[in-house]
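hey m, so remember when u said the C-alpha cells were messed up on ur end? i reran from scratch. heres the input so u can diff it against urs
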Amino acid sequence: MKQVKITAMTVFVTDIPVRLMRRHGSGDVAGSVKNAILKLETDAGITGWGDAAPWAVFTGTIEANVAALHVYLRPLLVGADPFRIEGYSDFFIWFSGAHVVKVSRRISRRR
C-alpha cells in the first residue's frame, strides 16, 4: 500500500464577524476578527482543514502568523504522512501556543 503524503498547504486569511463585543483583559473584541484557515492536501485526494486563530496580544498580527506558518510549518508538513501529524504536536505547542495544534489533530482524525 502506498504511503499518503501531504503535497500542499494553503493559508487563507478571513474576517470572521463578531456578533457581540467581548471584553478581555487584553482589550475588547468587536466587529470582526482575522483568522488564518489552513488547507492541507494529499496525493491521495484527501483534504484537511484547520485554523490557526491568532490573538494579537499573544501571537502577533495575522500577517506575522501567516508568515510564520509558511516559514516554519510548511517545511514540516509538506511531504509528511497526514496520519502521523500528532508527532509534531510538541513543536506546535512550543511554536505558537495551542492554536496550531488544532490543525494537526483535526487532520490526524480524518482517517
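this time it looks ok to me. The two ends are 15 Å apart (CA to CA). if urs says something different then somethings off w ur setup not the seq
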